[in-house]
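## retry 2 of 3
previous attempt timed out at serialization; input unchanged, resubmitting
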Amino acid sequence: MSRIGKRPIAVPGQVTVTLEGQHISVKGPKGELSRVLPDGVTVEREGDQILVKRKDDSRTARARHGLCRTLVANMVEGVSQGFERRLQIQGVGYRAQVQGRNLVLNVGYSKPVEIQAPDGIQIAVENNTNVIVSGYDKEIVGNTAARIREVRPPEVYKGKGIRYLGEFVRRKAGKTGKGKK
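## retry succeeded, writing output
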């Protein structure tokens, strides 16, 4: 039995969950999410908890059990609290700003790079170097943050670039034999 899959999911009071076969819809103060779960897994509601169970003991059902439980738990947490990813920009002259729904990045290219925020995602900038991506769908928040980081990933010699807050970038030593014959 999957350790993650057998844990119940607590449903807060302001969240409504609708189950129709393999289709689950979750609605809360931040938004509404729905998903079709794969075969081999069933979702049941008991009071203020959701239980994810597998139909049989097949290999695919065992593999999907914990995944489906985590997906449903992320849906419930997203519509009630939301998710956010923070990015940090390091480098001389590197900065970010928000214009409408677009994020404009000046990160060493000849022209600024514009990234449009998808629906349900808010992008904010603090101190011109800290970018906050927030929303109610964890998958889209993570993908948007990855797309922003992809514009200028951290460089290993000087550490310049866009990184997640708290991300450790291993630094390499530069050239050492400068001036020797």
